[in-house]
# Entry
Amino acid sequence: MENKRFTLGKINLILIAVGFIIIVSGFILMTGSTSGVEFNPDIFSTRRITVAPIVSVIGFIFIIFAILYKPKVK
# Structure
């Protein structure tokens, strides 16, 4: 039986999962309630306009780091 090795190690996959969780949390921060047909000024809140996109971008950057990360060999 052949010895197959994955390109990404266990640490890389864990870091990618953490980055994915960060991205999903950023998208959850962007969501909110809609109150039907009337105007809701909450769509322009700081959380939705500033914080959530920054969190999502940090998650994407973290995933790039996780893919490129190479553990130190002892």
